[in-house]
Amino acid sequence: MRRRIVMSMLAGVILSASTFLGAGPASAVPPADAARPAATPARSADHVAATPRDAPSAAPAGTASDTSAHAPAVPAADTPAEFGTDWHDPLTAAPPVAKPATKSCAVTVAEAQFRDFTPYRGTYTPPSGCGDRWSKVVLRLDGKVKGRQFDRLGYLHFGGVEIFRTSTPEPSPDGIEWSVEKDVTRYSDTFRRGGDVEMLIGNVVDDTYTGVLDVKVTLTFYAQGGAVKSAGIPDRVLTLQDGTLTTPRNSERIVAEVYATGSGGGCEEYWYLTVPDPAPYSCKADKGPYREVQIKVDDQLAGIAEPFPTVWTGGWSNPFLWYVIPGPRAFDIKPIEYDLTPYAGLLNDGRPHRIDVSVVGVPAGQTGWSTPVDVLVWQDAKRAHVSGALTEVRAGDLTNSSTYTPGSEERLDTVGGHRLTTVGYVDTSHGRVWTTVRRTLANTSAHQWTDGENTDALKAIWTDDETVTVDGRGPVGVRRTHRTYTMDGTTTLAADDRLRTVLTLGDRAAVDETRGGRRTTWSRLDDTYTGDATYTANVPRDQRHAVGTTSERYRLYGSDGCYDRVLVTAQGVLTRDRSDC
């Protein structure tokens, strides 16, 4: 019986829950790179033993966010017949961070070569010369790596506050460079104070996996002024202390961020493919693939969300899909946001309250998820104490049903979903303000595979709808967000050991804000990745004869304008880079 080479190997870092919940420095679990049996769906194709060959670099530099100097389209005649030993540097079609034309101050906050699971630790001092109230703060990571390496997961903490989570591309033998930008203005409260910095991209370097991750991270602070708008900046950014939260007593809006990732190797790295007994598949979960990230306050359900089905750069058995264009969010992992404002009256009593984050569907005792928590707080400057009350918590029944159908092609159909409504008020200096948060989750998936998993296919859709209504002095404000995540892919291992993966991923969101029934702002996001790559499995790296085409189209338009960029690659060469609106 043939077992196909399986999904990914993101064993970068698995951190203890207590660390992510605010209890001290991060600690890493030793990697499982060398300990997995061949049938475990958690390895990239580079797990096949081979010695990489060196060749002159022919790849032009590219960044994950730079649109200022697009590479020209490459004529088809210049596209190689198959992948060589080098390729275009990684880049994405996502827009760069908009920056104001004001004075700026740059600070290097981390610079390290990650070879193992030793965190970089340093200190940070706020910049001088740009004030302490900034119109924008932009994080930039610049990285380079060469040789051979798996995809790795990393984080950056400031005084315990997680401001960035990322994963890495897999390198060519001759080396690649990449960069990522992120708007981190919302953490301004943290940046106004000096303190400790900790960064880790857990890695393994040995005779086979030779890639050392050379990384530099800077923050650029833009002084007040300019035309670039920023979202409302919180007054405080808090972390949990021993799993508890104590808010300022005058908090009038509270939002929790959870950087939830299923990773670290093992089956939770690609939770969307797990199956329950008696289905004969190599990755098991008691109730199948439905996952839901929940947050509780004092053991009471306060928020629910669908996790984004991130595919890392070794995922779906086929690193040739990701060498140039990563999947959506792979380099900039976005946190789940929970509006906890209905709980503000309860939390404002000056006492610590227990905050717990859990992932529905993970088998008991099984690791693989990290759920660090930041809490953003907006305060009432004219009141020392904002009182209030939580008036309603209404949770629907959680739906989670998987149906297994045996046959020459095994099949698992899953339906899952949940509803939650929370209501509360706060008595502020500008009157009583009611906040109602409604969230509705839904997931359907069809997973089909053959004996030995030589053919393995999934078609899935997740929706996460949220409505936040704020009713106080003045017209009622409503913000509606409709999120849709999609995955449609098939991996096939043929009799000649040619492994082919065809995959489409979608990250979509529609946001509408109204005040007094009139729409004030709106936006539509559609980030779609497609890939088709084939190589010979179970041979040394230089004998894979790999071919592959990939593309990404990132469209964002609405009341603030539009952005539309398309990237296309063939055999690692960027053949199209078009921006239009």
Write the SSE topology.
Layout: H1 17-20, E1 104-114, E2 120-124, E3 134-145, E4 153-158, E5 161-167, E6 176-183, H2 188-191, E7 195-201, E8 213-223, E9 236-239, E10 244-245, E11 251-258, E12 261-262, E13 292-297, E14 300-305, E15 336-339, H3 344-347, E16 353-360, E17 369-370, E18 373-379, E19 387-395, E20 399-405, E21 409-428, E22 431-450, E23 455-471, E24 477-493, E25 498-515, E26 518-536, E27 547-558, E28 561-570, E29 573-579
Antiparallel strand pairs: 1-8, 2-7, 3-6, 3-8, 4-5, 4-7, 9-18, 10-16, 11-15, 11-18, 12-17, 13-14, 13-16, 19-21, 20-21, 21-22, 22-23, 23-24, 24-25, 25-26, 26-27, 27-28, 28-29
Low-confidence stretches: 1-5, 11-72
> Number of DSSP helices?
3
Strand content: over 45%
Please bin the fraction of helical residues. Answer: under 10%
Could you tell me the mean pLDDT?
88
User: Biggest β-sheet, characterized?
Assistant: 11 strands, antiparallel
If you compute it from the alpha carbons, what radius of gyration comes out, rounded to the nearest whole angstrom?
24 Å
Q: Got a strand count?
A: 29
Class inferred from helices and paired strands: mainly beta
Q: Distance between the terminal alpha carbons, to the nearest Å?
A: 51 Å
Shape: globular
